[in-house]
Structure formats: C-alpha cells, structure tokens
Write a structure and sequence with these properties.
The complex is a heterodimer.
Chain A lengths: L1 E7 L3 E4 L19 H10 L8 E5 L1 E7 L3 E6 L5 E3 L2 E3 L4 E4 L4 E6 L5 E6 L29 E3 L10 E2 L11 E5 L8 H9 L2 E7 L3 E5 L10 E6 L4 E4 L6 E3 L6 E10 L4 H5 L6 E2 L1 E4 L1 H20 L2 E2 L7 H6 L15
Parallel strand pairs in A: 13-21
Antiparallel strand pairs in A: 1-4, 1-11, 2-3, 3-10, 4-9, 5-8, 5-10, 6-7, 6-9, 12-22, 13-19, 14-15, 14-20, 15-18, 16-19, 17-18, 17-19
Chain B lengths: L4 E4 L4 E5 L6 H16 L5 E6 L3 E6 L6 H13 L9 E9 L7 H8 L3 H10 L2 E6 L6 E4 L14 E4 L3 E5 L2 E4 L4 E3 L2 E5 L20 E6 L2 H9 L7 E2 L2
Parallel strand pairs in B: 5-13
Antiparallel strand pairs in B: 1-2, 2-4, 3-4, 5-12, 5-14, 6-7, 6-13, 8-11, 9-10, 9-12
The chains are: A alpha+beta, B alpha+beta.
Chain lengths: ~325, ~240
C-alpha cells in the first residue's frame, strides 16, 4: 500500500496535524498552512482528521496509487484528474490500484491538500509526520518517492460536503499585542484602517506584507520572547511579517498584534497581490470567534454524506465555467 | 515577588512578563513558573515556552478563558518557589580553532589578547541557558566574559556547521543545526545538542548550566566518530 510520486509540484510535503509540545525546544508545530482544509480532506476519505496527507503550494503534480483507495482534494480550486477523469474538489473519489492522480495549478487559493484513505504512514519523527523544512524534519517530495499508506476499507463510502463551504470574506481579525504599546495611537489606527497587500515573500514560515509600514515609536527591538502562528512582527523596516505554521519559536522584533486562529488559514490562502484589511477584536471576542469556528467546523464534518456518483458527468462539466480551471497541459506538468 | 504583566498573543496564548531585563534572577522566575505549570498542570494550558524574562503560555480557550487563566497564573506567581528543581550542568568538550573556529585568531587579535587567553576566558566561564529558540535546540547562553562580547557580522555567513561554538553580542552559543549565521565562531564541539534521530533529541533546556572544556582536535574527531553524548550533572 503506497503512493508513488511521479512529478511533484515545487513544494509538496507530507503534513499531519503538527508536531506539538516542542516550542520550548525551538521547534514550531509545522503541520498544514490551512488546518481546516487539511482536516476536511481527511474526513472526506474517512481518516482521523489529524492523519498525514499531502500539502502542495499552487501546483500539485502527478502521483500514482499502488492500491485502491479514496482520495480527496481540498484547500484550493484546482483541476483534479483520476486516470484522466475530471473529479470535483471537496469530495472523495475512488482511485483504483495503479491509478494516476493529476492535480493542476490552483486557480483559487494557495495551499492544497490531497488526502488518501488510510493516511500517509511515513515513519514519525519526534512524534509526528509533519514536514518541518527549516528544522530539517522531512523534505519536499521528489519524483520517485514512495510513501506508505495505511489500510483502507474498500466498502467505505466516498463522502461529500452536506452543503457549500462558508463564503469567508471580510477583514482578517487580530488581537492587539503583545507589544502594541511600542506603537503610537496613529500607527495602531493604521493597522485597522490601511489596506495591506500580500507580497511574494511568503512561505510556510512567514508572510511579508506590502504597501503599509508600521513604524514603532518606542523601537522595534525587544528582549526576545515567544511567538505563535499569527504573530505580526514588525522589524525596523516597518514592514509587517505574519508568522505561519513553520515559524521560528522566539523573536526579537516588536509584535503589534496576532492574527486569530480562525482567520490565519484564510490569510495563508490569499493569492500574492491580494489586498485586505485587518480588524481588531478584544481577546474575549477572539476567544468566542475561535469557539464558534470550531463548532461550525464540527457541524460541517458531521454533515458529510456518502455520494453516489463519484466522478463528474459531462453534463455537469458542461454546466460549469471551466475556463479558469482546465488542465494546463504538458507545458506546465510534463 | 514580581507582579506579572500579561500580554495577549492572540486568543490561544499569552505572555507572562516577569521583569524588564536579562538577568539570572528574572530568568529563574520564568523557569520556575514553567516548572510549576508542568508539575501542577492547569487544565487548558497546552504548552509553555520560557524566554529571557517572560513565559509564553499557550492555552485552549474552549477549556479556560484568558481572563480566568490570568487569575490562576497571578496566584501561581505569588506562591512560586524559585528553588524547586535543580538545574542541570552540561560539560561540553570543545576543540578550539580549526576550520569551524575560523574567527579564533581574528577575535584574539581584535581583543589584543593572545589566543590561549581567549580560550581560557571562554572555557572558565559558567554559562546559563536563558532560553531555547531561533532553531531547534539552539541555546542562548548568558555569562560570556565582557571582553569577549563581539558584534555580529553585517553579512551572515551561509553555512556554519552544527556544533560550531559561537559568540554573538553578549551571548555564547553552540550551533544546533548547520545553517547561516552572523555570529563569530571559535571552535567546534563533537556534541550534537539536537539530533532528531536520538532517543533524547534535545540536550539543553532553559535553566541549565553549561561549561566548555578544551579538548584536542583528534580527541574531538574520535568523540564525534563514536557519537559522544554527555550526561548532565546536578548543578551546584
């Protein structure tokens, strides 16, 4: 039972929920950039939500399953083909032994997930399968890699969403602090009034924001302290940097605010060049938002239902606008 | 005992600030609070990260809300016993100079002392692990003699070996993984402070004491070949 990597996109990694409890040893959890999408992919194929799946940035690639299993693509809108048949995202599909899975370029979103029933069962390293590139725990996948898969139940149904995914929009919500007192009232107001742009300087570690600077009147250097995913640190350049799944665990730059957990995946999924605003919540409001988001996600996962036809019919395909999502062809994925 | 300041770090973490400066007493309070929470867990506290003068506390607001957690932590800080848990002492063998210690002669010249004197100063000092951060298992070591304080390079070097013994500003360090660094390097230890494949991947923890012991280059090679890993001693 295994998955063979035929032609991976430029950044395909194995990610489980993350490697927790090691921040005091300098290792952030890593895990998925969009954790709810990763959990959904697993749930669709009947895995525990923390099972290891593939994460890819922008472009998936070609893979072959050596045994029959169910697969699901989430996180991005991207063309998915199983043995040449177009398949919808956010639903599970059967792939027979030897089937080739092709995932093209994402037309919406940045971080995509491919879960396979049984889960990827690479050897855990320090208690987890999450790839942490900066810590040297695992690496980006290469052509020819073979990943073991767990046992799959051939009778289990292919699941699909019970309703559409919520249309998340609006500002990215933050809680001020821990070092917002380093910034003047004017600059704190700028945080919620100005329009920021997602720059091309971004990876699993951090995202640099363009177009707005946040100078700290009381200095940008602090006595180094702990960071979390979502910390918005501001170095002397004034250019904000949002820390992500694979960030450093401590830092010496002032952090004006923290993106709340429920909104960090949405920020991570914004295309380079996207403009957005921040909105400031109190900590209490942010805690309520997290609890509400968890409950909505639990309801969504509980409402997954078996689907009869797992592959798209030509009638359905003709009814969709596929111009932005057709397979890009051999020029992009040879 | 200090009154803690609580700084929110989003809705799932807060920073407990226990002082303003980098000093052993403040850091001992931070580590004592971290140990207190490990020994008598507060339901909903997920993880703590000690740093120089503050403790990052990650929590699950589904179990305990930030406001309630601050009250519990205030009580814990007021009743802290800073003596609890003896710090460990690590003796780290170092071959000074050599390829990894390429800055040794340069630094000695810069300080207008001879190389032997620099090695003596570095290896006679007692260092405190203030915190682990920046990279897996990377220890920030305080206690470097003032004459050895050296600014970082404006242009970091691209590939410094794991085990390289460094000086950056007022700190000493043991490189835990290979990688770029703007610190200055004076030697190499055969000890790997981080090895993900080892049963104990990380050797050092905040609050530990470190002492460097000079060894010859061939001794370092031998220890490296056999994968020498020191055992901690009880600190005095």
């Amino acid at each position: 039972m295994s998955l063979t990597v035929l032609q991976p996109g430029p950044m395909v990694t194995v990610q489980d929920a993350g490697r927790f409890g090691l921040r005091d040893s300098g290792v952030s959890a890593a895990g998925p950039m969009d954790a709810p999408a990763h959990r959904l992919a697993n749930a669709l194929v009947g895995n525990p939500t923390g099972a290891a799946a593939l994460e890819f940035a922008g472009m998936g690639g070609r893979f072959r399953v050596e045994t029959g299993c169910r697969v699901a693509l989430t996180g991005v809108t991207a063309p998915l083909e199983i043995d040449g048949q177009a398949c919808a995202a956010n639903a599970a599909h059967r792939a027979d032994a030897g089937a080739e899975i092709r995932i093209g370029a994402a037309s919406d979103g940045v971080w995509g997930y491919l879960a396979l029933s049984g889960g990827i069962e690479t050897a855990p390293l320090m208690g987890a399968r999450a790839t942490h590139l900066r810590a040297g725990l695992g690496r980006a996948l290469e052509a020819g890699d073979s990943l073991p898969l767990g046992a799959t139940d051939p009778q289990a149904p292919c699941l699909a969403l019970g309703g559409p995914l919520p249309d998340e929009s609006g500002p990215i919500r933050v809680v001020l602090g821990p070092q917002d007192d380093r910034f003047s009232d004017e600059i704190r107001a700028r945080l919620s009034d100005a329009e920021f742009t997602v720059s091309s300087k971004r990876d699993r570690m951090a995202m640099v924001l363009d177009d707005v600077t946040l100078p700290a009147e009381h200095g940008h250097d602090i006595v180094s302290d702990g960071t979390v995913p979502g910390s918005i640190q501001v170095p002397a350049s004034g250019q904000p940097i949002v820390l992500m799944a694979e960030s450093q665990t401590t830092g010496g730059y002032a952090k004006i605010a923290t993106v709340i957990g429920p909104d960090l995946p949405r920020l991570a999924q914004m295309a380079t060049g996207t403009q957005f605003r921040f909105a400031v919540l109190t900590r209490d409001e942010a805690e309520e938002a997290l609890i509400a988001a968890r409950s909505a996600e639990a309801e969504r996962l509980a409402a997954l239902r078996p689907q009869a036809a797992t592959r798209l019919t030509s009638e359905f395909l003709l009814s969709c606008d596929l111009v932005g999502g057709v397979w890009p062809g051999d020029e992009v994925v040879p | 005992m200090t009154t803690p300041a609580f700084l929110p770090c989003g809705e799932q973490a807060l920073s407990v600030e226990l002082g303003d400066s980098i000093d052993p007493e403040t850091n001992a309070t931070v580590i004592a609070l971290s140990r207190n929470l490990a020994d008598a867990p507060v339901e909903g506290v997920v993880e703590t990260v000690p740093t120089y003068r503050s403790l990052l506390v990650r929590y699950d607001p589904g179990t305990i809300r930030g406001d309630a957690l601050e009250k519990v932590l205030t009580e814990r800080v007021s009743s802290l016993n800073r003596q609890q848990g003896a710090a460990r002492l690590w003796r780290i063998p170092v071959a000074y100079g050599g390829e990894a210690g390429c800055d040794l002669d340069d630094l000695a010249a810069q300080k207008e002392i001879d190389t032997e004197e620099l090695i003596r100063l570095h290896s006679e000092a007692a260092y405190r692990v203030y915190m682990i951060g920046f990279a897996p298992g990377f220890a920030y070591l305080g206690g470097l003699p003032e004459i050895l304080h050296t600014p970082r390079l404006a242009q970091p070097r691209q590939n410094i070996a794991a085990g390289a013994i460094g000086i950056g500003g007022q700190q000493a360090s043991i490189n835990s993984v290979a990688g770029p660094s703007g610190w200055r390097f004076i030697g190499q230890t055969p000890v790997r402070t981080f090895d993900p494949a080892r049963e104990v991947p990380f050797l050092l923890a905040a609050g530990d004491e470190v002492r460097f012991e000079r060894i010859a280059a061939d001794e370092a090679e031998r220890m490296s070949a056999e994968g020498y890993t020191p055992e901690p001693e009880a600190a005095t």
